Amino acid sequence: MSPFPTSTVLGYPRIGPRRELKRALESYWNGTSGRDELDRVGAEIRERTWRRLAELGLEGLPSNTFSMYDQVLDTAVLLGAVPARYRAADDPYFAMARGTEGLAPLRMTKWFDTNYHYIVPEIGPDTVFALDAAKPLAEVREARALGFETRPVVVGPVTFLLLAGALDRLDDVLGCYAELLSLLAAEGVAWVQLDEPALVGDRSAEELAAVRAAYARLGSLADRPGLFVASYFGDLGEALPALAATPVEAIGLDLVRGGVPALDLSGKTVVAGVVSGRDVWRTSPERALAALGAVRASEVTVSTSCSLLHVPYSVAAEPELEPGLRARLAFAEEKVAEVVALARSPRLDASPAEPSVALPAPVAPERRGPYAVRAAAQAEHLGLPPLPITTIGSFPQTGSLRAARAAVASGTLSQDDYERQVEAEIERVIRVQERLGLDVLVHGEPERNDMVQYFAEHLDGFAVTRNGWVQSYGSRCTRPPILHGDVGRPAPITVRWATYAQSLTDKPVKGMLTGPVTIVAWSFVRDDLPLRDVVFQVADAVRDEVRDLEAAGVSIIQVDEPALRELLPLRRAAQADYLEWAVAAYRRATSGASDRTQIHTHLCYSDADQIVTAIDGLDADVTTIESARSGARILPTVGSFTRGLGPGVYDIHSPRVPAAAEVEDLLRRTLAVLPVERVWVNPDCGLKTRTYEEVEAALANVVTATRTLRADL
Ligand SMILES: CN1c2c(nc(N)[nH]c2=O)NC[C@@H]1CNc1ccc(C(=O)N[C@@H](CCC(=O)N[C@@H](CCC(=O)N[C@@H](CCC(=O)O)C(=O)O)C(=O)O)C(=O)O)cc1
Ligand SMILES: N[C@@H](CCS)C(=O)O
Ligand SMILES: [Zn+2]
């Protein structure tokens, strides 16, 4: 077996340095360009990546890390796990990812504790697995034709099945993996990388036995490449001895989030993830070299802690960043250079002691009155009908607004003209809602490029990038802000737009803010303070904004926390502590409001049922939450909820317009578990990715369904 290269990365960004893949995908989907053009752009991105990695001096180049949509979906296709209903679609792959007319897409959810979303494979007892290795084989050949030998990367069998909730099908998928390994060996591939991030979570004895069985079986194959099992996003814990006892030749460890294991891994290669793939900071060479020196293994390869998918392409594309900050940053390209430099450095012998950080005492939130008192004060003040209808905040973001923002940035449109355009959009959104008959209106968020970036642009302590795009799902990207200093709010941020919207209508207009946990979760965050201290700093800034909105006469304020679940530590032992401070931070942000001001919060991930107690702990007067898309799965768990709740009645992720009867059905199911006085009617999430046509039709049906139910009360 050839030795493992001395330097590598677990994966690389793939949307293109200027989001070339995003544009190509969207033109293909809307019919402006054909499949050939999409494939050409994909090939160009792959070629450029391999060439760049090689130029930077990286030895071990990965392949099959490119994806047209998502690597978990690619793995489902690799294993033949395409549900029958998609097979007849024009393009089954994109039908699974995005749905087609009459066919809902597969479920999408967060990839571990990141802001990346994967497509959840649908695997049942009858799923027939059959290997289709076309994509990894084609990428190996494509790279070879360019002069590069590569290591194909595939999601490993245990993680794939755990994500699909189907570990009982392990024996069946292992047949496909075995066949894949033998095809890759025949192709002359030296190493294959099987990604097993699920092993860094708490795993039962049965699951650990599955790990041993899977890798014992794959390891025992006569004809196969070297097996590299990559873990990331934390410590392997008990899964490490399980893996170490199998014949896999190389094991990848996240030595940024996890510690150097005490276990002696002689006989194995350790692929040591000492350069973080989750942040944008330069690596401390001392710390990295010490970790490399402390690993006990036959060979140690320098690598990233996880795929670089989660960071932008290059700091070189950010000439406008303040030079002092810029010098502290490393995006994907710079991280590759760090890996190469570390691989070429002599190793140190021992790990320095980690500095211990003293945690400050928990901050007691300022209390609002009890819910019953608040609810009575709000009912009197707001006078809303039963089953109040509202939306989550954003209305469709139009191309002309996006183009206008780009024009302001490039100096071809004045700030004043831009603001007139935003006002015109707000007026349009208010009139649409009045015409439809909604009860609590929103201004539509047209002034926001993104619900986190917008706030970062108006707070001290943050920097934003021009081109620092990171894939969120499919063609959708965000530019995570960089939180590098102490956070403060120099001036009110949203008051101007909220009061303008309220001036146009007699109906209440909700003020709309992003919560402290979400602002931090969707940013790159300084690493010299405990995360919770950073979250509390942001909470104080949000609190200032809540107070100013209230003082300006806004009587309903929504503080969104969609990322509350996302930051939940992967290991149970750390979860209670996190939830305690995250909830305290939210309460700190909102508890400056008077009892008469109604506080709303919003969460939009289907696995919110795992943290219902914490959501209740936020103490918001009204919580709106995704439900329609996840088949009302949340309903059985929210019966214990003691305040206002709006389980979404309309899945905004799909262009499909729900019929009034469907909405009525969801509402009836909600009313079966919650008293009518506390039920709100709303979509699952914001409407920014939809068109006005879809939104108006869907909301009209929501209003019809609600009126039918109100008539029955
Ligand atoms: C709710 N979600 C969010 C997450 N994270 C966030 N930070 N924000 C979120 O809202 N995580 C979980 C989910 C993920 N969901 C989404 C949904 C939608 C998007 C999305 O649509 N992203 C846009 C980019 C948004 C943005 O920053 N827009 C800017 C810049 C727009 C732009 O591309 N401008 C053009 C020029 C303008 C033109 O001529 O059209 C350019 O720069 O070239 C803006 O509006 O100003 C996307 O397109 O991917 C993301 C996550
Ligand atoms: N207020 C935001 C929340 C999205 S999670 C929106 O409506 O887009
Ligand atoms: Zn949402």
Automatic annotation (TrEMBL):
- CDD domains named among the record's database cross-references: CIMS_C_terminal_like, CIMS_N_terminal_like
- Domain of life, per the record? Bacteria
Query: Which residues bind Zn(2+) per the record?
Result: H602, C604, E626, C685
Q: This chain belongs to which protein, by name? A: 5-methyltetrahydropteroyltriglutamate--homocysteine S-methyltransferase
Q: Does the keyword Secreted apply?
A: no
Report which residue ranges the record marks as coiled coil.
Answer: none
* Function comment: Catalyzes the transfer of a methyl group from 5-methyltetrahydrofolate to homocysteine resulting in methionine formation.
Pathway(s):
Amino-acid biosynthesis; L-methionine biosynthesis via de novo pathway; L-methionine from L-homocysteine (MetE route): step 1/1
**Family that this chain belongs to:** Belongs to the vitamin-B12 independent methionine synthase family.
Q: Which GO terms describe its biological process?
A: methionine biosynthetic process; methylation
Binding locations of 5-methyltetrahydropteroyltri-L-glutamate = K22, N115, R476, C477, W522
Where L-homocysteine is bound, by residue? I392, G393, S394, D560
Q: What does this protein need as cofactor?
A: Zn(2+)
Q: How is the cofactor bound?
A: Binds 2 Zn(2+) ions per subunit.
Q: Domain Cobalamin-independent methionine synthase MetE C-terminal/archaeal: where?
A: 387-707
Residues of the active site: H653
The UniProt record gives the binding positions of L-methionine as I392, G393, S394, E445, D560
Q: Which GO terms describe its molecular function?
A: 5-methyltetrahydropteroyltriglutamate-homocysteine S-methyltransferase activity; zinc ion binding
The record's keywords, sorted A to Z, are: Amino-acid biosynthesis, Metal-binding, Methionine biosynthesis, Methyltransferase, Repeat, Transferase, Zinc
Encoding gene (name): metE
